[in-house]
Each structure stands twice: as C-alpha cells, then as structure tokens.
Specification:
Blueprint: E1 6-10, H1 17-28, E2 31-32, E3 36-37, E4 52-53, H2 56-64, E5 68-74, E6 77-82, H3 83-91, E7 96-99, H4 102-111, E8 116-121, H5 125-134, H6 140-153, E9 162-165, H7 169-185
Parallel strand pairs: 1-7, 1-8, 2-7, 3-4, 8-9
Antiparallel strand pairs: 3-6, 5-6
Length: 186
C-alpha cells in the first residue's frame, strides 16, 4: 500500500492558513493531526479532540524519547505533533495536513524529508497588518507583537517549496487543493 502524503502549511499570523486549512480538510476529507500541549484545557476543549493535554514532565519525557515530529515552546507552554498521530494516517495511505509555525515546519522537514512544504502569506505587509487589526480581539501591544513576529516569519518563505499568496479564501483554497492533488498524482 502506498503511504499518504504529509503537507506542512506554515506562515505568519494573519495569512489565513487556519481558515484555508479547515476548509480544504473538509472539502478533501483530510486528517488534522491532534497536537499535544502542556497548557491547561480551555472551556469545552476535550482531551484527544482539541489537544492531547499533558503536564510538562510527561511532554519532556516523550520529547526525549523521540515521540514528537516537532515541538515548540510558545508563551510558556510546550506544543508538539506526535509522530504516532501522523504516521497512523500516512501508513493507511491517507494524506495529512499539518498547520504549524515555521520553526516546527522546518523540524518536520528534517525528520520527514518527503513532506511537502507550503508557505502561506498575505498579498502585502499592509494587508497583513489590516487583517491583524481587523480581528478586533487583540490589544494594540499584542497586534504590534504579532506583526513583528509575522514579519520575522516571512523571512522563512525561501525554506518552503511552494508559496500560496492568500488574496481571497476561495483562491487560496483552490491553490492548496491543486498542490495536494498534484502531489497525489505524481
């Protein structure tokens, strides 16, 4: 049986990757790998659905045993993609899309060289800033930090094989679907 394909989608906050990945997964029936985290569950989050919640000791023990495809320390909490979570689908011949930060994406490529790396970005820095401002949920300081981080993350674009410029949701969905279908046919 042929293994499934692994697609890594990364890019700065405000690029639209969460929205696009959700729609593409629904349209193509692709799997979302459930990540692990050391942060506490939020209201309504279910173990094994939103995340695999674990304490820091267990997370680090599993990381040291090589059980993660990638990990990151974000805002004082560890996050990671369990290798077993991804491999169960790939081994069954099914495709998986990982939506992760750029550093995590590069860790995946190092451990799984066959992964198809897709970088998402807004059409311009001005558009990116407008999208971050348009969320209306963040303070000015948070938006400033997100924009600084986003501009730094844009420097990783050349480490990815393909770039999707998100002009519109429909166009970006069509672009990502074409990338996935093209990989399946090759």
């Amino acid at each position: 049986m042929r293994k499934g394909n692994l697609f890594v989608v990364s890019g700065p906050s405000g690029a639209g990757k969460s929205t696009i990945c959700k729609l593409v997964r629904e349209r193509l029936g692709l799997h979302l790998s459930v990540s692990a985290t050391t942060r506490a569950p939020r209201a309504g989050e279910v173990q094994g659905a939103a995340y695999y919640f674990m304490d820091e000791e267990e997370f680090l023990r599993r990381k040291n045993r090589g059980e993660f495809l990638e990990t990151a320390l974000v805002h004082g909490h560890y996050y990671g993609t369990l290798l077993s979570e991804v491999e169960k689908y790939l081994d069954a011949g099914e495709d998986v899309v990982l939506e992760i930060d750029v550093q995590g994406g590069l860790q995946v490529k190092e451990k799984y060289p066959r992964a198809k790396m897709v970088f998402f970005k807004a059409p311009s820095e001005k558009e990116l800033e407008e999208r971050l401002l348009g969320r209306g949920a963040d303070s000015g300081e948070t938006i400033r930090l997100r924009l600084e981080n986003a501009l730094r993350e844009l420097t990783y674009e050349d480490k990815y094989e393909t770039t999707v410029v998100n002009h519109t949701v429909e166009q970006a969905c069509a672009d990502l679907i074409a990338i996935i279908r093209n990989e399946k046919e090759s």
